[in-house]
Amino acid sequence: MATSGTSSFDLNIDDIIEEAYERCGMRTNSGRDLRSARRSLNLLFSEWGNRGVHLWKVSLNEVTLTAGTAQYAVNESVNDVLEAYISTTAAASNTASTNDISLTKIDRSAYAALPNKLQTGQPSQYFVDRQTTPQIFLYLAPDATTFTTLKFYTIDRIQDTGSYNNQADVVYRFLPCMCSGLAYYLSVKKAPDRIQLLKQLYEDELLRALNEDGQRASVYISPQTYFGDGV
């Protein structure tokens, strides 16, 4: 049996909108309806930012450390910083002698309790201030002698839909729940009799996609053992 030999299926924004409207039992060519659907799709992507870490949006970033400077801005498209470490070289200059030291992430209260936030030395902790443009605060403030680069993994925002002939910034395994999610959002406005059905389908498909979108690594769990004092 002949097969296509390809595995590059994807959907343009207008295809996604058409699929969602069909699930609502509707067809539309109205510019107003298209704009409404595109707005709903952008809101859906925003809501996905509250659903956990999406691996295809994780990226490695780096900034050059400046002696005595504790605060570093990241790109405005970043949603959060997941992990950070300091390095003796930039990523492009990695060699067998490159040395990396992991940093511990602390919360606002722990950072606020630090007595001298600009004390210099080798950083060991970092705090992320999640504003519109997130900021990373290091402690200690780097002396930038041995470790010259801050490297950090971020979870980035899903890109806006843009033009109707664009493809969505979504990996193939999330295509089904993206169409289901948009159909559910549109049903709230256009097909209230289908809200519950489309919501259930969306949540089921999103749950499967989120479960699939994980890192397959070995996990070892051992019970915690307590020893008595013999009394």
Any overview of this molecule?
The chain is an alpha+beta fold and 231 residues long. The chain has 2 domains: 13-52 and 174-211, no CATH class; 55-156, no CATH class. The protein has 5 helices and 10 strands. The strands form 3 sheets. A 4-stranded antiparallel β-sheet has the order 1-10-3-4, with no helix packed on it. The protein is elongated.
Brief synopsis:
This protein has about 230 residues and is an alpha+beta fold.
Write the layout of secondary structure elements.
Layout: H1 13-23, H2 31-48, E1 58-64, E2 71-73, E3 78-87, E4 100-102, E5 104-106, H3 108-112, E6 120-121, E7 125-129, E8 135-139, E9 141-142, E10 149-156, H4 175-190, H5 195-212
Parallel strand pairs: 5-7, 6-9
Antiparallel strand pairs: 1-10, 2-8, 3-4, 3-10, 7-8
Within the largest sheet, what's the order of strands?
1-10-3-4
Categorize the overall geometry.
elongated
Strand content: 15-25%
What profile does the largest beta sheet have? 4 strands, antiparallel
Number of domains: 2
Category by helix and strand content: alpha+beta
Poorly predicted regions are none
Number of helices: 5
Distance between the termini: 75 Å
> Helix and strand string, N-terminal first?
HHEEEEEHEEEEEHH
Number of strands: 10
Q: Share of helix among residues?
A: 25-40%
Q: Quote the average pLDDT.
A: 91
Gyration radius, in Å: 23 Å
Oligomer: single chain
